[in-house]
């Protein structure tokens, strides 16, 4: 495949990791960063404090100016936190770009006000011609990707030829890419798993063990799938890499910011005190609000997500929330069973 001119919008850990991977494959990569102080530090030290284990090569451009990063690019990678996605898209759109780029979203989240997925937010705000919008996601900690540890992702787009193009662009002996056209399922799985990861962390924080965490993961996966099916996603997506795969890694990993937030909540700390010193965004915090709104909209019961919401925003006692989950009315495991439904 011919090498590409690529603009990466955002130098968070995952945006940096994927951009560095594309650079290693020989592509021309340019980064945009909102924080001018971080740009200055990278210029001076070549170290990004959000991913310090991999220095930025001296020839890689990192800038606070948006236009040189996005104009005349074959591919634009949107790697900003979900709460900033709309405003950044508006800034990009105001540049009235030409060149018909392909847009790749790698951010995970659901906009609280509109309940739009990230690819929908991008599509709503970008009005200049683009070849398409797709999402790349899956169980992928940036720290392992830059260390060249084997990682497997999914490229999702309704236009499967675009998914296949990105598949070929990204793949090497350490990064494997699968494709799907279930964009809805892929983005919901990647976003809502962060809520369940907070629940898993809460379980760790109150001192429970593997039994409790396994139950939370599985029941949380069921909650995610119910919302996904109501929104038109395919059920098999939620047993794949962007469903169960991403859920497992986020719930158990020492790298998971969302699991960490939950663990600290389980220990009794307040949410604001946990988030204040964190350099990177724990997307599950805002996504929990979105999850509750989705549950209301689609009349879907999400007891695990509701328990997380109450701990974070209603000052509920974490241990009491776990107890209440255990003491819910007796039911059959799966909907449609003879003994009843969830």
Overview in brief:
By secondary structure, this protein is an alpha/beta fold. Helix content is 49%, strand content 11%.
Structure notes:
The structure is a single chain. By secondary structure, the protein is of the alpha/beta class. It has two domains: 5-181, 3-Layer(aba) Sandwich (Rossmann fold), CATH 3.40.50; 184-326, N-(1-d-carboxylethyl)-l-norvaline Dehydrogenase, domain 2 (Orthogonal Bundle), CATH 1.10.1040. The chain is built from 15 helices and eight strands. It has an eight-stranded mixed sheet with strand order 3-2-1-4-5-6-7-8, sandwiched between helices. Helix 8 (183-205) runs parallel beside helix 10, helix 8 (183-205) runs parallel beside helix 11 (257-266) and helix 8 packs across helix 13. The chain is globular.
List the helices and strands and how they pair.
Elements: E1 5-9, H1 13-24, E2 28-32, H2 36-45, E3 61-63, H3 67-70, E4 75-78, H4 82-93, E5 102-105, H5 118-125, E6 132-137, H6 142-146, E7 151-156, H7 160-170, E8 175-180, H8 183-205, H9 210-230, H10 241-252, H11 257-266, H12 271-275, H13 284-297, H14 303-313, H15 318-326
Parallel strand pairs: 1-2, 1-4, 2-3, 4-5, 5-6, 7-8
Antiparallel strand pairs: 6-7
Helix pairs in contact: 4-5, 8-9, 8-10, 8-11, 8-13, 8-14, 9-10, 13-14, 14-15
Q: Class of the largest domain, according to the CATH hierarchy?
A: Alpha Beta
Task: Tell me what portion of residues adopts beta-strand conformation.
Answer: 5-15%
Task: Predict the CATH topology of the largest domain.
Answer: Rossmann fold
Strand order of the largest sheet: 3-2-1-4-5-6-7-8
Helix coverage percent? 40-55%
What is the tally of helical segments? 15
CATH superfamily membership of the largest domain, which one? NAD(P)-binding Rossmann-like Domain
Biggest sheet details: 8 strands, mixed
């Amino acid at each position: 495949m011919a090498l590409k001119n690529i603009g990466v919008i955002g130098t968070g850990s995952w945006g940096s990791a994927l951009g560095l991977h594309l650079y290693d494959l020989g592509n021309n990569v340019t980064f945009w960063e909102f924080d001018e102080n971080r740009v200055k530090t990278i210029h001076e030290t070549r170290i990004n404090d959000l991913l310090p284990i991999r220095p930025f090569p001296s020839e890689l451009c990192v800038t606070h100016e948006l236009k040189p990063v996005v104009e005349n690019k074959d591919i634009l990678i949107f790697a900003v936190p979900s709460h900033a996605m709309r405003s950044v898209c508006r800034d990009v759109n105001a540049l009235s770009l030409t060149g018909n780029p392909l847009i790749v979203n790698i951010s995970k989240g659901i906009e609280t006000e509109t309940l739009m997925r990230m690819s929908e937010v991008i599509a709503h705000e970008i009005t200049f011609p683009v070849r398409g919008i797709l999402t790349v996601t899956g169980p992928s900690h940036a720290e392992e990707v830059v260390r060249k540890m084997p990682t497997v992702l999914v490229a999702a787009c309704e236009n499967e030829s675009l998914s296949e193009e990105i598949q070929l662009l990204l793949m090497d002996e350490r990064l494997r890419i699968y494709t799907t056209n279930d964009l809805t399922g892929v983005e919901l799985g990647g976003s809502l798993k962060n809520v369940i990861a907070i629940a898993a962390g809460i379980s760790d924080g109150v001192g429970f063990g593997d039994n409790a965490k396994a139950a939370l993961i599985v029941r949380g996966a069921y909650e995610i799938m119910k919302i996904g099916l109501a929104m038109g996603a395919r059920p098999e997506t939620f047993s794949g890499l962007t469903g169960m795969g991403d859920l497992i890694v986020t719930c158990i990993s020492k790298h998971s910011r969302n699991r960490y937030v939950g663990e600290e909540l389980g220990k009794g700390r307040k949410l604001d005190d946990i988030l204040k010193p964190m350099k990177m965004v724990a997307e599950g915090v805002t996504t929990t609000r979105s999850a509750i709104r989705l549950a209301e909209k689609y009349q879907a019961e999400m007891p695990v997500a509701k328990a997380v919401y109450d701990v974070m925003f209603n000052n509920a006692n974490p241990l009491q929330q776990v107890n209440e989950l255990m003491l819910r009315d007796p039911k059959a495991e799966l909907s449609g069973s003879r003994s009843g439904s969830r």
